[in-house]
């Protein structure tokens, strides 16, 4: 993904941003400011590339934001509407998972109470029933009657 981002970088625009950050006007002055030879910088530009290692090393040393230089921030921004949608999705999922968990717990409680199991056996049955009932609740859209029937039939097998 980073490689794809680098391929999309406008070489000329990036060079202009670097010149502005280093307060220089020529390619020669820019290459010297980064500790590179002018020929290395010009050769990279001829290949439609940049001397990334030199740029990154120098920007880090001078606390210049690489995101600003390469325009990376625009690639990863999330709009406020997307943030709101994510928050709503989270709330919906949380509500559904809580409902599913409450359904499974109530069915297990009903099943154990109906069969009057001992403490140790009760814990063993809970542990065995839970994954089966969660899967059933998901498959049958939290239909209490179906999940309860599955719990009772499964209990006879345990």
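^ Assign residues to that structure.
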């Amino acid at each position: 993904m980073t490689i794809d981002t680098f391929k999309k970088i406008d070489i000329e625009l990036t060079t202009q941003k670097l010149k502005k950050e280093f307060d220089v006007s020529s390619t020669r002055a820019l290459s010297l400011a980064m500790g590179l030879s002018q020929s290395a910088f010009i050769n990279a530009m001829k290949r439609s590339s940049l001397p990334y290692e030199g740029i990154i090393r120098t920007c880090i040393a001078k606390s210049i934001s690489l995101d600003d230089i390469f325009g990376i921030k625009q690639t990863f921004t999330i709009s406020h509407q997307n943030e709101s949608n994510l928050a709503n999705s989270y709330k919906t999922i949380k509500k559904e998972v809580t409902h599913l968990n409450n359904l499974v717990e109530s069915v297990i409680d009903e099943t154990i109470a109906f069969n009057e199991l001992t403490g140790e056996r009760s814990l063993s049955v809970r542990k065995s029933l839970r994954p089966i009932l969660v899967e059933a609740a998901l498959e049958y859209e939290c239909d209490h009657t179906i999940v309860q029937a599955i719990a009772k039939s499964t209990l006879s097998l345990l």
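Residues 80-115 form the longest helix (36 residues).
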